[in-house]
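WARN retry 2 of 3 for item q-0093 after timeout on previous attempt; input resubmitted unchanged.
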Amino acid sequence: MRKCLSLLIPLVFLGSVYAQSGIQLELNTVIEAEADGDNYSTYTFEATKEQPLGFFIDAEFTPRIIVVNSSGNSIFDSYNYYSSPIVFFPPDDGSYMTIVSSRSGDFEGSFSIEMQAIDIPAVTYGDVVERDPDGVDTYLFTLDAMEGDVVNIYAMSEGNNTILRVYTLDGPEIVKDDGRGPGANPHIRRFIFPDTATYLIALSATWDPEVLDTPVTLYVDQTEILPITSEPQTIFLGGDKAGDATTEILVFDDVNADTTYRLIIDTEILDRTVIIDVEVYQEEDRLVKVDTRGFFLRTSADFPARSDDRIFFTLNNFTS
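OK item q-0093 returned
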């Protein structure tokens, strides 16, 4: 059976580690150390419930920290955390241990670690937050979201190369972007929050320069999913104003397993330097990828549904 979909486009050792005596970390105190090839170094610290703590680590290796509570349970892991500082939200008052190691496993070289209590402003849907340059490399925000909320999170700046990342409070990055908006500004498009929770948003400089030295504006917009159907739909990619994006996300919910679908793409961009890239995903599996340049007026691709789960279509506009 075939159906058509159409688009018109212009650590296991943690329990025993806590029993070891670590160096005490105090607020606003820099500790310098040397990694001697052991797997990790340990530090203990006191924390207050829900007072965010920032760990500033300057190292000759890519640092990773794991936070362990007094019961010996790992409650935070920065393995998939890529912003600075590394932020920990204590769930309770009390004593904790942080284990400093290397993300790559090569725990060698000098490093320093400092812990600071930091204030992180909360944002809500519809907020527009302006920040003047102050020489930092990351602005942090928290956002309370409900399971299934759909958001566009994007930033505008004329002089910075920036990246947006969203983290869960126990460490992992769940989505990022560094250039889908106007002027290669970051734009996280139609992201669907997986759980009802508080999330951490990090807006960081990437390179040249490595600090935020011009004004930056952050936008947090609640939106809706964009469904794809058998009827033609017109999708515009690109633009030069806040909210425009070179990417779009569509979803198809009326999915039947073991059915083959056909994606039809018509373009009205007669420019061979413009490339339309379409990727089709179900869960984490890519079903098909289609690349088409502007001088191809019609492109199609067939793909089988592997289950009844929702299918995502990611459209990207590139210039070669």
